[in-house]
Write a structure and sequence with these properties.
129 residues, 4-stranded antiparallel beta sheet
């Protein structure tokens, strides 16, 4: 059984920063890419950022580019999201995701939910104005 566990969420004022962490536990497995998605109340889950272990390429949604930074450790199947200059519209539950199948190599679609086969339970991020 593989589990992805997120941590680091919380309440922060607009303009502040938070660092999210995600670590995998359970049976040994390898991942090809990991990413972050978020879901605000009443909205669809949307892509935030992803990192490919092949070459370390990173990918960002336009609405977080320049403010968020994704990083990770492939050997630990761990991924982090440094969030700076937070805005109230960043308020959401943030989910960690992992691709252990290799879908990212097949379709290159790092921003699609269907690319990832493991998901965490989410961590709440609330940005007050």
């Amino acid at each position: 059984q593989v589990q992805l566990v997120e941590s680091g969420g919380g309440l922060v004022q607009a303009g502040g920063s938070l660092r999210l962490s995600c670590a995998a536990s359970g049976r040994t497995f390898s991942t090809h890419a990991m990413g972050w998605f978020r879901q605000a109340p009443g909205k669809e889950r949307e892509f935030v950022a992803a990192i490919s272990w092949s070459g370390g390429s990173t990918y960002y949604a336009d609405y977080v580019k320049g403010r968020f930074t994704i990083s990770g450790e492939s050997a630990k199947n761990a991924v982090y999201l440094q969030m700076n200059s937070l805005k109230p519209e960043d308020t959401a539950v943030y989910y960690c995701a992992a691709d252990s199948i290799g879908n990212t190599y097949l379709n290159g679609k790092y921003n699609l939910r269907s690319t990832y086969n493991y998901w965490g339970q989410g961590t709440q991020v609330t940005v007050s104005s």
